[in-house]
From TrEMBL:
UniProt organism field: Oncorhynchus kisutch (Coho salmon)
Biased composition (Basic and acidic residues): 1-11
Recorded name of the encoding gene: IFT140
GO biological process: intraciliary retrograde transport
Residue ranges annotated for the IF140 C-terminal TPR domain, each copy included: 1243-1356
Ranges for domain IFT140 second beta-propeller: 413-709
Name assigned to this protein: Intraflagellar transport 140
Length: 1360
């Protein structure tokens, strides 16, 4: 926690009350203007601790009005009410008045960004521009002067447009970047234009006047009006990101304008800001476009011009502010992102901006209010200094310079010292449980304690021991060990006595640097230097000796900027190091240097795990984390400590850092992480837990406690117990060491050593603490042993029952619950995704809001149950209004809410009327009926549309006519039944039968009709009713002997066909028999079917008789009847007579015989397709093929032959296809050849080829194709096996002779082209063959000769 040391300025006695303050932009020099009604005005300069600079005093008999520092030089511009402008140089005090230009009160003083120009303006509207050289000396008279006739109120310079970054280009050029080198003057010719650096400063400025006008003065001094607003201009802002000029008037009217290249302005927006306007409003702006105003109200108002958003910041009385306290002034520090505001009660409120990139809350949540700093008087002006730790506060009577300082605190050997105020210390000795407060007569900047018996409290500027010894010292850091005090100076560490005598010097070389960090642990001192070297010294001897050589961390650590903190363990063999990066930001890594192994490793809190390690020996296995947790990621270490007695134990305090990739919801801001660090096992995560609420910062680790500082100055440093607290507070050292060893071995997984270390422990509290360790390490096997030694049977049983859970985390969570570790159980349930168990946990622990949220987002299957349980809980605690809401959400409000509100009838009635739910209306009506309020009950029954209850109540009240109307209108069956009962009790039979019928209570209506002889209605009711009622009515008619047709019909409708037929035969009701027979099927009684079929045969209805015979499974009789009566067998009838293979009614032979008989009958009737089907089902494919051949369906014949795959069928199909016109259909010819081939009928195939050859000869005279066909025929015939060898040989000889003749004729025709004479001779010889025809038709041969002689002109030969 930071405090502010206040330094009152050492003002001269002649000075009056301060009116203005101004810090130099780069130097810690403060200018203060004061006014005295008697002596006039004074200007004085002060240093950062309020020291007055006597040489820089300026006084005048009139009042100063404006102060403005040069941006870089120690040069102050002063404006007076008489129009005088003076330049004051620090520290010489040289005063340079400007030539007289103004005659009115100076209102404007403004330097350009680099200080080469100075603007002055007065109350009369005169503006002058002055030029100043690089040394800060005025260059003659003004270079520009304008008279605007109205008072000038504000002025700003417009920033210069960005040019090339020369520094970056220079670094790139040095690094060898050719393009960067080419940008400078020594570039190669022709590579581009020369370097354009842009102007060094912007010389264009804008000036505002009291009449609301803004003028622009360009770099040449020309002035032009830009814009005009209503009211006097109080502030001008230029937003560089958007290149927008913002104007604020005294009436707090904000306008934004875009500026054109030619000076024109276009209005973007105009809005009236909240707050009190006038000169009292203090307005500041930030580079990010944030406008902050203090207008003498109880809030600070902020406007975000970039996001077009606004909000307020208010004071918090719990932090020490008073009610009604108002804020007068504001000042914002951009670098530290701190907003300071002064109040009228002498307090300075500080808001620190908190980075929350993932927050979805209001922007106000980004500002955190700090504890106020109190000064005297009414704070009227605040200003941050060039040094970020300086803040000047003007309290009307004086000016205070506040210097920020981090509160000092130290813990050593059971003694803690914490700085409470700049000059007050709180000292606590824990071994004696004593506490005392020490006050110093100076500001304390550091504190260090040692030894319980003789504590030394050592401020940096004054060291104090019990003997009250003191001495002067310039050291910025210090450390204490025994009676030695260690301070630093350049290149060495001084070892002093309590009186300040230097007894030893620990020297550092120039390369090792200057010592800047000191830390002592037991007998070892670790020193860190400004060149990132560390060195450990052994203090256990009379003189300090180097424990190791200086180690340079720059070579081992990438991007290292400077050391931030160094600590060593109790053995001096491990050093922990915090560093900052080159850019000044804290490093996310915690480094560990092993002195003996000379290796460096680290743990990266940004990733939450260690890397392979960084060491000179490449020892990659030493830095190990047993269970890296995601909660350790996205963090940065801020402090670290070693246990003073246990060298293995290390603790680190980490804070959450901003990251757009991580969701920071449900993550703690500050996490305390404990490690074991050893040479053998490296870095081992032992435990982590959130910093306890209400505590401030980690101070030390001393098992079994963590020590934290408390923000309450009235309390001593608060204690937070370590990972093994229970039972260790007052135990002896042996038990404590055993516990630490157990924890260590448990962490590394060495269970044998872990159990050995605790085998002698008897304390149940210690065993409980070890069970808690098992939760952290998730070792349930060890936990069972611990629970057994604790005697905690309930926890052991719960752990045993939890073994059914598949997730390890869920089982560990059960253990955590039994040990009271609720936060750990919650995290475990979340980590394994068991939101159902997490929901139950929240309910059991009374965290109902979290339970509801969990059910709504992750456990929706139990959402209604959660709502219901929460409602029951709310009802139990008396919050019925909220219970009602959650009963509704759980959809149990229809019965739970009336039950809950039963004692409050008025509230219940209001709820009933509000909900308009039918079920609730019905419940309320029943309640009113129970209270005998029948009229209201009827109304709510009507709202609920409960017609039964309406009829019931009306009948009770005797309004049976009204009840009848309701029953008839609604048709409600229950209401009709109740009304029918009422009419029956009153012996109104017709009405009763009517309403029984409407209620569909037909048995009651039938009963009344039978009892009262209503036979006509009885028939209709029986037909509407069920079969039992039909049977009862049919029996009634049969017994009565009248209306037998009705009896038959009712028996028939009831499904009792035998009884219906019996009665129909007995009464000869043939029409009824016809209807009954239509409903008979194979499930009916066979005897009944046979009887009916005989009846239909007698009456000539053979089709119906056949159907009944088939249904009776008398297939042969049905088939014979079809033959006798010439009945056409349809496909449906044939199918009904076909018995399936699975049927047990007929054997397989009988089934096939029946199918063949059916097929034979179909053949007689000409139904060849159906016959084919039945023959096929009977397995007789030959008969099926014959039937199909008779049908002449070529396509089916081809298909059937293809699927049958029988030789005979192939031949039959081929023979059939030869009877077709195969000459015109190549597909038929192809099938013929295929079928003969598949049927192995090669002789028939040969005959077919001969027929094909003869067709080619007779029809087309194509002897070439005929020769090919004959050749194929010969091949087939040669493979065929004839019945008679002689006959076969004769046929082959005949076919061969025919082939020879055809071949000779073809040869003659082919030879004609080459040798016509030889061709003619061959043809003539062919004609001499005795049996030439039909192999070669004689006409074709003579035609060949005639054609030849005609071509030769031998017509005489042709005619012969």
């Amino acid at each position: 926690m930071a405090v502010y040391f206040d330094h009152r300025i050492d003002s001269p006695e002649s000075s009056g009350g301060p009116s203005q303050v101004a810090w130099h932009p780069t130097q810690p020099v403060l200018a203060v203007a004061s006014n005295s009604p008697t002596t006039g005005g004074n200007i004085d300069l002060y240093l950062q601790q309020g020291e007055h600079v006597g040489s820089c005093h300026v006084d005048r008999p009139f009042q100063p009005t404006v102060l403005c520092w040069h941006p870089t030089k120690p040069l102050l511009a002063l404006g007076w009410e008489t129009g005088e402008v003076l330049l004051l140089t620090h520290p010489s005090g040289e005063q340079t008045p400007l030539p007289v230009t103004h005659t009115a009160c100076i209102t404007l003083l403004e330097w350009s960004s680099s200080g080469s120009r100075l603007i002055t303006g007065d109350q009369m509207g005169v503006l002058a521009l002055w030029k100043v050289d690089a040394r800060g000396r005025l260059q003659g008279s003004h270079i520009v002067k304008h008279d605007y006739t109205k008072p000038l109120t504000y002025c700003i310079f417009r920033p210069a447009p960005p040019g090339e970054d020369v520094a970056m280009l220079a670094r790139a050029a040095v690094g060898g970047d050719e393009s960067a080198l080419d940008m400078f003057n020594w570039r190669k010719a022709g590579n581009g234009p020369p370097l354009k650096m842009g102007p060094q400063e912007g010389l264009v400025f804008y000036v505002g006047t009291a009449d609301g006008k803004v003028h622009c003065v360009d770099e040449h001094g020309r002035s032009s009006p830009v814009l005009s607003v209503d009211g006097s201009i109080q502030k001008l802002f230029y937003l560089k990101r958007r290149e927008v000029l913002a104007v604020v008037t005294e009436t707090l009217l904000l306008s934004q304008y875009t500026l054109g290249p030619e000076g024109g302005a276009q209005e973007l927006m105009k809005v009236k800001l909240s707050g009190k306007g006038g000169q009292s409003a203090d307005i500041v702006s930030t580079e990010t476009g944030l406008l902050i105003t203090a207008t003498g109200e109880q809030v600070i108002r902020l406007w975000d011009l970039e996001r077009d958003d606004n909000y307020v910041l208010s004071l918090d009385e719990s932090l020490g502010f008073e009610k009604g306290e108002v804020l007068n002034c504001v000042s914002y520090c951009t670098a530290k992102e701190i907003l300071a505001a002064g109040t009228n009660r002498g307090r300075i409120a500080l808001w620190r901006m908190v980075s929350q990139p993932n927050t979805r809350t209001d922007t106000k949540a980004q500002w955190k209010l700090q504890t106020p700093t109190e000064i005297e008087g009414n704070v009227t002006q605040l200003q941050w200094g060039s040094n970020l730790n300086l803040l000047a506060a003007n309290s009307v009577t004086t000016v205070l310079i506040l210097c920020e300082h981090v509160m000092s605190a130290h813990f050593g050997q059971q003694v803690a010292a914490v700085q409470l105020t700049p000059s007050q210390l709180s000292l606590t000795m824990f071994n004696t449980n004593s506490h005392l407060t020490l006050r110093s007569d100076m500001h304390i900047k550091g504190v260090c304690v040692t030894k319980v018996t003789s504590p030394n409290i050592c401020p940096v500027t004054k060291l104090t021991s019990p003997k009250m010894c003191s001495f002067l010292c310039e050291s910025q850091v210090l450390a204490v060990h025994d009676e030695n005090i260690y301070t630093v100076e350049p290149n060495r560490v001084q070892v002093r006595t309590p009186q300040g005598t230097v007894k030893q010097l620990l020297a550092f070389s120039e390369a090792e640097g200057n010592p800047v960090l000191l830390s002592v642990c037991q007998g070892y001192l670790v020193v860190g230097t400004d060149t990132a070297h560390i060195k450990v010294f052994d203090l256990t001897r009379r003189e300090a000796k180097a424990h190791c050589s200086a180690k340079n961390l720059v070579d081992l650590t990438p991007n290292l900027g400077a050391l931030k903190s160094v600590k060593c363990n109790a053995n001096g063999n491990q050093v922990s190091i915090l560093v900052t990066q080159v850019n000044g930001r804290p490093d996310h890594r915690m480094y560990f240097y092993d002195v003996e192994m000379d290796t460096l490793s680290h743990f990266d809190f940004f990733t939450g795990r260690p890397p392979s390690g960084i060491s000179q020996a490449d020892d990659t296995e030493r830095c190990v984390c047993v269970r890296p947790l995601t909660e350790l990621s996205e963090r940065c270490p801020v402090s670290h400590f070693w246990d003073e007695n246990e060298p293995r134990l290390f603790v680190c305090e980490t804070v959450l850092v901003s990251s757009p990739q991580m969701d920071h919801l449900d993550r703690v801001d500050v996490l305390v992480v404990t490690f074991f660090c050893t040479q053998e096992h490296g870095l081992l995560l032992q435990d982590s837990y959130p910093k306890p609420a209400g505590l401030q910062a980690l101070l030390a680790l001393d098992v079994p406690y963590y020590y934290f500082t408390s923000p309450d100055p009235t309390q001593s440093p608060s204690l937070a117990q370590a990972s093994a607290p229970a039972g260790l507070e007052n135990c002896e050292k042996a038990t404590r060491d055993a516990m630490l060893n157990f924890s260590f071995y448990l962490t590394i997984g060495n269970m044998d050593e872990a159990f050995k270390s605790i085998k002698l422990i008897k304390s149940e509290a210690v065993w409980e603490n070890m069970a808690r360790m098992c939760v952290k390490n998730r070792r349930l096997d060890v936990a069972r042993v611990c629970l057994g030694n604790m005697g905690n049977a309930r926890a052991a049983r719960a752990l045993r029952e939890a073994e059914a859970e598949p997730e390890l985390e869920a089982r560990v969570a059960v253990l955590a619950l039994q040990l009271g570790m609720l936060e750990d159980a919650e995290k475990l349930y979340k980590s394994c995704g068991r939101f159902d168990l997490l929901n139950k946990f929240y309910q059991a622990s009374g965290q109902w809001q979290q339970a509801v949220e969990t059910a709504e987002t992750h456990d929706r299957i139990h959402l209604r149950t959660t709502y219901y349980s929460y409602a029951k809980y709310l009802e139990a605690i008396g919050d019925k209004s909220m219970a009602l809401v959650f009963f509704e959400k759980s959809d149990t409000h229809r019965f739970e809410v009336p039950r809950m509100l039963l004692d409050d009838a008025l509230s219940l009635e209001i709820y009933v009327n509000k909900m308009k739910d039918k079920n609730i209306y019905k419940w309320w009506a029943q309640y009113l009926e129970s209270q005998s309020d029948m009229e209201s009950a009827l109304r709510y029954y009507e709202y609920a549309q409960d017609f039964l209850s309406l009829v019931r109540v009306h009948c009770y009240l005797g309004n049976i006519q009204k009840a009848s109307e309701i029953a008839n209108e609604t048709g409600n069956r229950a209401a009709s039944y109740h009304l029918a009962r009422q009419y029956e009790s009153q012996e109104e039979i017709k009405q009763s039968v009517h309403f029984y019928t409407r209620a569909q209570a037909y048995n009651n209506a039938i009963r009344l009709c039978k009892e009262n002889g209503l036979d006509d209605q009885l028939m209709n009711l029986a037909l509407l009713s069920n079969p039992e009622d039909m049977m009862e009515a049919a029996c009634y008619y049969e017994e009565k002997g009248s209306h037998m047709d009705r009896a038959v019909m009712l028996y028939h409708k009831a499904g009792h066909f035998s009884k219906a037929l019996e009665v129909a035969f007995a009464t000869e009701q043939f029409a009824a028999l016809q209807l009954i027979a239509e409903d008979l099927d194979e499930t009916s009684d066979p005897a009944l079917l046979a009887r009916c079929s005989d009846f239909f045969i007698k009456h000539g209805q053979y089709e119906k008789a056949v159907e009944l015979l088939v249904a009776a499974k008398k297939y042969h009789e049905a088939l014979q009847l079809c033959l006798d009566q010439s009945l056409t067998i349809t496909e449906d009838l044939a199918e009904s007579m076909t018995v399936t293979k699975e049927s047990k009614d007929l054997s397989e032979e009988a089934r096939k015989e029946l199918l063949e008989r059916i097929a034979d009958c179909c053949m007689r009737q000409g139904n060849y397709h159906l016959a084919t089907k039945k023959y096929t089902q009977a397995g007789n494919k030959l008969k099926a093929m014959r039937a199909l051949l008779k049908s002449g369906d070529t396509e089916k014949i081809v298909f059937f032959a293809g699927v049958s795959r029988q030789k005979e069928i192939y031949i039959m199909a081929a023979n059939y296809l030869q009877s077709l016109d195969w000459r015109k259909d190549p597909e038929i010819m192809k099938n013929i050849i295929s079928f003969y081939s598949k049927g192995r009928a090669l002789d028939l195939l040969a005959g077919f080829y001969e027929a094909c050859a003869q067709v080619e000869i007779d029809d087309y005279q194509n002897y070439e194709k005929a020769l090919g066909a004959l050749t194929e025929a010969y091949k087939c015939l040669s493979k065929a096996k004839g019945h008679s060898p002689d006959e076969h040989e004769a046929r082959m000889a005949e076919l061969q002779h025919k082939i020879t003749l055809v071949k000779r004729f073809v040869q003659a025709r082919r030879l004609y082209e080459e040798d016509p004479g030889e061709a003619v001779r061959l043809c003539e010889a062919l004609l001499e063959e005795p049996d030439l025809d039909p192999a070669v038709r004689i006409g074709d041969a003579y035609g060949f000769l005639v054609e030849h002689h005609c071509q030769r002109g031998s017509f005489q030969v042709v005619s012969v």
